[in-house]
Amino acid sequence: MRLGRADYTEMPWANGKGRTVELWREDGPQGLRFRLSMASVVEDGDFSLFPGIDRVLTVLSGPGFGLVGDGIDLRCDLLVPAAFPGDVALRAVDVTAPVEDFNVMTARDLPAPEVRVVQAGQYVPPQGGRLFVFDLASQGLEISEAPVTASGPSLLVLTRF
């Protein structure tokens, strides 16, 4: 399945202080199970809380920023996936220019996805899992249970559920 910008949904952040573009979402009886989204971070501020959710954030453009709170001091740099719990009060700091990011949110009881930046080539999903390939140039998303060929630099999300 291939999705593009016309297939995505824009919505307000859970904390109401910004907007996100939701690319893919799966819900279960208790709510959010898995989500891929993009957002802009334009100033220092609190991140939304997502109880029971683990997150992986990858800066797609801009200088990056810090993420701090409750014993966490994390640097979010360009094209380096950064994992953190979604139910800890965190604050973006040192935002010096607008940053576009890609978020992977996964219910904590699911196997953690693997998130990495890759170049052009063929990629194979894990056994029993799926492959999500986000093309950095076109911002198109391909979802497959079979091998996928990336045409250029992409963000790869491998799930085992």
Short overview:
By secondary structure, this protein is mainly β. Helix content is 0%, strand content 57%.
- Second CATH tier, the architecture of the largest domain: Sandwich
Order of helices and strands: EEEEEEEEEEEEEEEEE
Output the radius of gyration: 15 Å
| Major sheet details | 6 strands, antiparallel
Our measurement of the CA-to-CA distance between the termini, rounded to an integer number of angstroms, reads 17 Å
Shape: globular
Task: Please give the count of helices.
Answer: 0
Number of strands: 17
User: What would you call the structural class?
Assistant: mainly beta
Tell me the helix content: under 10%
User: What share of the residues does DSSP label as strand, in percent?
Assistant: over 45%
Mean pLDDT reading? 96
Strand order of the largest sheet: 2-3-4-11-6-9
Low-confidence stretches: none
- CATH H-level superfamily title of the largest domain: Jelly Rolls
> How many discrete domains?
2
CATH topology description of the largest domain: Jelly Rolls
Q: Please identify the top-level CATH class of the largest domain.
A: Mainly Beta
How would you characterize the overall build of this protein?
The protein has 161 residues and is mostly beta strands. The protein contains no helices and 17 strands. The strands form 4 sheets. Strands 2-3-4-11-6-9 form a 6-stranded antiparallel sheet, with no helix packed on it. It has a 5-stranded antiparallel sheet with strand order 1-15-14-17-12, with no helix packed on it. Strands 5-10-7-8 form a 4-stranded antiparallel sheet, with no helix packed on it. A hairpin with a 2-residue loop joins β3 (19-28) and β4. The model has no long low-confidence stretch (mean pLDDT 96).
